[in-house]
Amino acid sequence: MDYYAPESLSEALDILGRGGVTPLSGGTDFYPALTPGGPRQSLLDITRIAALHGISRQAGGWRIGAATTWSEIARAELPPAFDGLRAAAREVGARQIQNVGTVGGNICNASPAADGVPPLLTLDAEVEIAAAGGTRRMALSGFVTGVRQVALKPGEMVVALHLPDPPETAVGAFRKLGSRAYLVISIAMVAMVLRRDGAGRVDHARIAVGACSPVAQRLGALETALIGARPEEVRVTMANLGALQPIDDVRGSAAYRLDAVREVIARMLREAGDG
Amino acid sequence: MDKRLAPLTVFRLNGAEVAVAPRVGERLSESLRERLGARDVKVGCNAGDCGACTVLVDGDPVCACLMPAQQAAGREVETLAGLVAHEPLAAEMARRFEAQGAAQCGICTPGMMVSAVALLRAVPTPDERQVMDALGGVLCRCTGYRKIIDAVMGRAPAARQDELGHAGAAIEKLDGRPKVAGRERFGDDVAPADALVIRVIRSPYPRARFHFGDLAAFAARPGIAAVLTAADVPGRNLFGTIPGFIDQPVFAEAETRFRGEAVACVVGAPETMALFDPDDFPVNWEPLPDVQNMSDARGAGAPLLHRGRNGNVMCGGFVAHGDVDAALARADVVVEGRFETAFVEHAYIEPEAGFAEVVGGRVEVHACTQAPVMDLETLETVLGMDRAQIRVVPTAAGGGFGAKLDVSVQPFLTIAALKTGRPVRLAYERSESMQSTTKRHPADMRVRIGATQDGKICGLRFDGFFNTGAYASWGPTVANRVPVHASGPYRVPDYRAEATGIHTHCPPAGAFRGFGVPQAAVAQESLFDELADKLGIDRLDFRIRNALRNGEPTVCGQVFEQGVGIGACLEALRPAWETERAAAAVVNAQRDVVKRGVGIAAGWYGCGNTSLPNPSTIKAGVRVDGQIVLHQGAADIGQGANTVIAQIFAQALGVPVRALELVGGDTDVTPDAGKTSASRQTFVTGNAARLAGAALRAEILQRANAGDGATIVTGSGVIEVREDGRVQAIDLAALAEDTQGYVLRSEETYDPPTQPLDENGQGVPYAQFGYAAHLCVLEVDTALGTVTPVKFVAAHDVGRAINPLLVEGQVEGGIAQGMGMALMEEYLPGRTENLHDYLIPTIGDMPPVETLIIEEPDAHGPFGAKGLGEHVLIPTAPAILNAIRDATGVQMRKLPVTPSRLRAALKEADHG
Question: Is-annotated flag, keyword Cytoplasm (chain A) (predicted)?
């Protein structure tokens, strides 16, 4: 067993391509899941690879390196459409977690309650995936395929997220509902990006809900209903929430989750209307 | 060619370059603690849930348990000890933590202070929200966080400088410095580097038959020193706490009774055990039908957990006074309800830990505990050894709250030390701590209360079942205590209360702050509000009208002619009750969805054992060099016994408290001060300290032929007695040194006067009660079912506050626990066995607390003092429930009141 900490992406991909390694970044999901006796295979620490870090402006959008931490995202200067993502960054666990936990790790861990996924869905995030043989991109909505399941093939890793420029003047928001103030796994969460035209009517809408289905979901029907309407006037119906399939667990009942999500969305829409 | 990190990881630790060779997967916390000796880094969960291990890496706070050690390469790592030693800001923070009483047990203190230093480097004068954001990742179970916030914000110190430090002085804790400097040594901090490591093999099923494979072959593996099972227990394979109920095996034999029960231990070299996977242990499990709740356990055909306990009934407690049926029949108004509470986990941040070794043929165990002498007595039976051959040395305890009254690691450690002849250590993982140690009993209670039109209680009937889990532990105490207390601190002439402990295949429920009384108070105090409303009487007035007074009998027929302080506690809440209710009405008139409510509730608690002897002994001596030494055996689990007992002793002796040298509860040198439970230490051990101080004073004064008004002054090699300008020196060198190295010595014992209860629970269960009343202001988001506590006002009759600062600390911490019990805490075996699924309040959940100290002196208490430790959370949960009802009209009867449950109840009550 080895601990690899390469400084270049190509080295990392070579190591990964040979198999038998677990990629590791902030460790915030890796260690809690570690069973007694320690890891059963080698570790590939990707945090020393410069290409995986940082937030940069690119033609037509933004690139966030997979090993970028939540603290870096929270501090970044980004357009208002990213406010939801930055708010989510400040609600991942607590400061200690945000300082090392990464956006790439968050999506690859594929928890239904991953705080990063709903805001990234509202930003139409694409995942850049690399392997020794080349890179590919796919939409985040297709990347997370189930509880703890992602569309990575052997030898592949996530290297970045690409976020196309949202419409100018679009504004993002995020709301997490939990049973305590910090260090809390969401009962439900809602991310939203809306743009209103000069008359206050929505002409761009993205709404995503987490912790209410195996994979966080966009609410397409509600987004459609919003187009052309003032946000505060749109009534959130149960039909709007059809994409969600919440479960009963220790954090709350399925019925509560739907009820609460509807209320949270309604409030966020009202606030968007006031804004 | 792969470029790998060299096997050596080099980084800077507190300013000095260090190099380690960690295993693949080794956590930075382990490297720091075990390879570099930085045991100021505390491990509470190994999952980033508690933040105790917080260190700074390149200035940023991170959980050292979540960072591969290799990631520290080339970086700057700072820990509490280094920060306090080198950085003025951290040294200042340490001073503030001491001055605010912000460190109780001290186990979270490194995480708190390191996080605070990072904040203050960036934001020198943070506001409260910034402090919460910065410290939100560190859990504390003792303080209720408010004093930590005060310390980080640099608010005016709460402690007072006081030269004498006697009763009434709000001095800093005498043992606080090591806690804020990173030098405190807890259960896992004391083992020698070469100690063997123990890993416990536990049942993955609530009930299972099991068969071992080839244990001899397993034990012969390289690096394995021993395998222990029931066959290796030298004495009786049973422990427990209550005579007649010693029913828990150290290792299960043939069949387990709860998930997480131990069946074996593996003892081996540290490097072997670091790689040991319990799944490799040769044991086969055969799951059997189990019962997880009380109704199943009581049902026909339910598997019987213990022979002779038919119907899975462990035992019951009963109190009857007057004729409750007749009283309820003549009542003008009757209310009734069924209330249910959950398993509550103690969730101290220090998991059970310790080490043991054989020294000169004797076995010595160093571990965190609330009851060193009880541990010794248990080991005597389990090891089958004479007690003279056993030594128990308590380490600092990182919280207790009741669960560290029972042994946990101690039998494993001592059996392993005796078997291997080597030092051995064991620290529970968070999950095994949660699976295997005791819990608060879930209660299922039916209560009926009547009152007459004049607002007087007329009959109270209580029937409660308490899920005591697989073994008795302190269950019998809960069954006995509840009926004595279920009336609340009120005059209830006609009363009948019965509490029954039921076995299930759940972890043993035992002692937890209040021993069942907080559960009973939930039912009784909730129904009091309903009763007051039906009568059209103000809820506070109704309580005051029925409050127990001096000269009135309790439900046990006990009459206190003095010291009953509940009326004063309730009256003290009146100003807040009136202003907060008025303020809530104004707020509520303007808002539809978020509603504000104000709730009150009261509580009482008898200090010490129920009608049973529970003596404490305190010893003190003067060495030939003039140093006064106080042997203080009351386990200080953060609450402050080391300080309070010393203050009492110092006053009785007549010297400044700082003149004392303290020796802890090492059973070789310190007499038994009893267990730290039942709110007994300030009262019982405090009295022993008062007597010991007075006896030593009398001897000194007699040798100086001085009167009682004389002043004792200690000095080097001499004690001076000053009286009316006359100075009399006692030449200590001229006195003979006794076998313990003292030239003067006193040792005194106090046992509270109680009398047995008869078959109806009538008698004198306690020599004193303490009293409490809480007011809670909170807001309910009726559309989301969330509850946000806004403020607590807590009135506590402590008789005499020996140390008002520590009183506040107890109150704030107790309220935080009561709040957790009311709103979020529910232990479900197999489901909430960690600190991210089992939630306790964080710093952002805890509102301000105003503590009103009421001093209604008690004739039995030292300088009038009463116990406090349990009282602090008894009224909290019902005050919260009553505030929720005040805000919404909905009476919640099942704890915890999660958003999901509250929203469902609100919907049922037509809140949209």
Answer: no
- pLDDT tens column, B568-580: 999 999 999 999 9
Contact list in B for residue A3 (CB cut-off 8 A) is 4-5, 24-25, 68, 70
- Name the DSSP letter for residue B232: G
Residue B583 burial (10 A CB sphere; 0-12, 13-18, 19+) = middle
| B849 phi/psi in degrees, rounded to 5 | -125, 130
Of chain A, the end-to-end C-alpha distance in Å amounts to 55
Q: What is the pLDDT of residues B221-241, one digit of tens each?
A: 999 999 999 999 999 999 999
Residue B606 bridge partners (DSSP):
B769
In this complex, do A181 and B903 lie within 8 Å of one another by their Cβ atoms? no
Q: Which of B48, B843, B845 sits opposite A28 (nearest CB)?
A: B48
Instruction: Compute the distance between CA of residue B424 and CA of residue B159 in angstroms, rounded to an integer.
Output: 41
pLDDT at B715: 84
Report which DSSP code applies to B855.
-
ipTM: 0.98
Q: Are residues B201 and B146 in the same domain?
A: no
pTM over 0.90, yes/no: yes
Give the 3-state DSSP-derived string for B71-131, with helices as H, strands as E and coil as C. Answer: HHCCCEEECHHHHHHHCHHHHHHHHHHHHHCCCCCCCCHHHHHHHHHHHHHHCCCCCHHHH
CB atoms inside a 10 Å sphere around CB A69 = 25
Q: Which two tokens stand for residue B229?
A: 């099972």
Answer yes or no: do B358 and B214 share one domain: yes
pLDDT of B43 higher than 70: yes
Q: Residue B912's pLDDT band (boundaries 50, 70, 90)? A: low
Average pLDDT value for residue range B766-773? 98
Which of B702, B726, B750 is at the close of a domain?
A: B750
Residues B126 and B257 in one domain: no
Tell me if the domain spanning A171-274 has CATH number 3.90.190.20: no
Res B417: pLDDT: 98
Please count the residues of chain A: 275
What residue numbers bound the domain in which B72 lies? Answer: 1-172
Q: What is the pLDDT of residue B5?
A: 47
Residues in chain A closer than 8 A to B845 (CB atoms):
180-181
B103 and B231 both lie in a single domain? no
Q: Does residue A271 sit at the B interface (CB-CB below 8 Å)?
A: no
Rounded Cα gap, residues B111 and B137, in angstroms: 9
Helix (H/G/I), strand (E/B), else coil: A32: helix
> What three-state secondary structure class fits A138?
strand
Q: For residue B690, what are the CA distances in angstroms to B242, B706, B707, B742, B769?
A: 29, 20, 19, 19, 20
Pull the structure tokens for residue B228.
């222990």
Chain B residue with minimum CA distance to A252: B900
Residues of chain A contacting B5 with CB distance shorter than 8 Å? 3-5
Distance CA A107, CA A120 (A): 10
Which pLDDT tens digit goes with each residue over B505-526?
999 999 999 999 999 999 999 9
Q: Do residues A68 and A164 lie in contact, with contact meaning Cβ atoms separated by under 8 Å?
A: no
* A243 vs B537: CA distance, rounded Å: 51
Q: Tell me, what amino acid is at B380? A: E
pLDDT at A180 over 50: yes
φ and ψ of B135, to 5 deg = -105, 5
- CB of A18 within 8 Å of a chain B CB? The answer is no
Write the CATH number for B879. Answer: 3.30.365.10
Q: Which residue reads 């805001």 in tokens? A: A119
The reply to whether B83 falls in a domain is yes
Q: Do B136 and A4 touch (CB under 8 A)?
A: no
pLDDT in tens, B616-669: 999 999 999 999 999 999 999 999 999 999 999 999 999 999 999 999 999 999
Q: Is residue B439 a contact partner of residue B469, using CB atoms and an 8 Å limit?
A: yes
CB pairs under 8 A between A and B: 178
